[in-house]
Amino acid sequence: MPEAPKQPPRSPSSGHYHHHLSKNWRALDFIEEVTSNPGAVQARVLSEILSRNAQVEYLRRHHLDGRTDRHSFKQLLPVISYEDIHPDVSRIANGDTSPILCSHPISEFLTSSGTSGGERKLMPTIEEELDRRSLLYSLLMPVMSQFVPDLDKGKGMYFLFIKSEARTPGGLVARPVLTSYYKSNHFKNRPFDPYTNYTSPNAAILCPDSYQSMYAQLLCGLCQRTEVLRVGAVFASGFIRAIRFLENHWPLLCHDIRSGTLSSDITDPSVREAVARILRRPDPALAAFIEAECRRSWAGIITRLWPDTKYVDVIVTGTMSQYIPTLDYYSGGLPLVCTMYASSECYFGINLNPMCQPTDVAYTLIPTMAYFEFLPVNRNGSTGRVNSPLTTELVDLADVKLGQEYELVVTTYAGLYRYRVGDVLRVAGFKNKAPQFNFICRKNVALSIDSDKTDEVELHQAVGKALNHLAPFGATVAEYTSYADTATIPGHYVLFWEMVVGGSLKNGRSSPAIPPSVFEDCCLAVEESLNSVYRQGRAADKSIGPLEIRVVEPGTFDKLMDCAISYGASINQYKTPRCVKFEPLLEVLNSRVMASYFSPKCPKWAPGHRQWCNQEFK
Ligand code: AMP
């Protein structure tokens, strides 16, 4: 990728333009600087975190006694997972304001999409972390504009949403990190910047009703179609959901554009007011154009409706790569751009070569965000399972080796010390002396449609619960596997079940004595047993479709094994995969489906943790 020149070019034009350019150069200079000496930056970050938190209970418990050097830190502090700090987190959630993890007051909890005991993990955060997140965001467009010129000459059509929030018993707000960011002054009252000039008004983004929010954002995007230079959402799944919404609602949207009035379904007064500023007069010509394009076909709809779009800005790394074909279909092959890698625990890094292919995306961790360590991992070639030998020394950011895979471990300003994030990364190259990482996977995730992450153990327990519904029929499941079906929008979980009826297989048929409603009950029972992020996706966000059980012919799982072995799986070590992604294996399963059943309704979900007395507030 081109190196960032050290000097801004002489600007011939206005002061505003000059200011904008110099902000760009400052961002690129910052990247140059922190990537040139990551070791020193990381040492400074660690010492800063440890010195300001010297008196916190957690560090005293581990006898750090005010030391801030790397050696003592590594010797005395254990590498931990969420379960290790769960008791500390619970105390904070219940109202203990003493400095347990961090010397700064905990401002709120960020609710991770990673779960523990079926509930979202709670990540304590502090006010100043918003500055760090904003800093990472501020680097994205200066990097992007090195590759795509004139992005400051138009708008971004981004579909951004907030999710519901809850209060912990101690009174702290608990909400996802993006909800926290969009509701912050950093976002709401951002000064005008051509790079954060979006088609969606803040009021539409901040509307808690997902239908009204989506409708208003699409309507505003359509009205400003000729100004749009880039489109996107956070994750690929969210962007595809917006296009599907357009497929389902274009007649209504066109009606509003034709008449210059907003549908009465949009009741939120601040949204109505904001949309009215954009939908100012009837525009029958625009309505007719959109209608004609929507009637024509959905292939390439993005470039037909928003003709100046240069790229689609969505995360398509990790499990989101399953959406690449759908995005290509809608966008007519526009570049798919992954710009950043972040989490509730900490924002990590950015992609310095954003126009690369999705398979080549590598994130450069920004060394000022946190102190990063790396646990070398070996993945089992055939199962993909991750083994992290904890006896191995953790490696520092400046010492990782090209080609090696590592699990990411962070120490943050907000009070996580040597915390395993659960992501596996591979070193793909270097920017100056700073490593760049491919995102390989999140450990132990079998199924994912949106931000849900379901592991094999959870799935197994959920299937186990559902089997109770079959017991009265003398039936059970001999073998099962699963699949995240993203051909439907929204995607949904599919379970393949091979049945045992009355103790033996009945020729090619499931017992007629089992009515379809029982299988439907099984679907719902699995969903009710899955974690709260899954249930929220189903019940509140509608980002996940109803779970499906496909009953397959007897003998199907033997055929599955034959197929896996023919592709190189070891006969001796073969175990039924609990999740299938490989197309030939899916074909074996799908060609033997005898019946399929869907969950008849949404599983129960309420904001906040089960054990809290919840109050939803806006
Ligand atoms: P959360 O804690 O709910 O914000 O989720 C954070 C997790 O989302 C990370 O630990 C990753 O597993 C995943 N994630 C975030 N950004 C990316 C990305 N650019 N590519 C792949 N996965 C990502």
UniProtKB/TrEMBL annotation:
Residue span, GH3 middle domain: 363-442
Keywords: Ligase
Domain annotation GH3 C-terminal: ranges: 458-583
Lineage: superkingdom: Eukaryota
InterPro entries documented for this protein: GH3, GH3_C, GH3_M
GO molecular function, one term: indole-3-acetic acid amido synthetase activity
GO cellular component: cytoplasm
Family indicated by similarity: Belongs to the IAA-amido conjugating enzyme family.
Protein name: Indole-3-acetic acid-amido synthetase GH3.6
Organism name: Trapa incisa
Taxonomic lineage from the root: Eukaryota, Viridiplantae, Streptophyta, Embryophyta, Tracheophyta
